[in-house]
Amino acid sequence: KNGGICTTLFYGKAEEDPEEWIRDFRQYCEVSGLDPLADARTRVRIHGLFETCLKGNAKD
């Protein structure tokens, strides 16, 4: 966990499962009340959150 800022960080390492991470991210958004179908502002917020969770090679 990352202090409640995002679900978990994703670095793109071989031992990380990107599909599992995306599932976890989607679940985090749902639990946090962030519905991508709600409006453009919410989608922008989700996108920003997604980017903050990507680190290292995954961010490049």
Please characterize this protein's 3D structure.
It comes from Acaulospora morrowiae. This is 16461_t:CDS:1. By secondary structure, the protein is mostly helical. The chain has one domain. Helix content is 47%, strand content 0%. It is built from two helices and no strands. The longest helix has 14 residues, at 18-31. It is globular. The two termini are 22 Å apart. The model has no long low-confidence stretch (mean pLDDT 89).
Q: Topology, please?
A:
Blueprint: H1 18-31, H2 40-53
Gyration radius, to the nearest Å? 12 Å
Distance between the termini: 22 Å
Helix content: 40-55%
Whole-number tally of structural domains: 1
Mean pLDDT: 89
Organism: Acaulospora morrowiae
Protein name: 16461_t:CDS:1
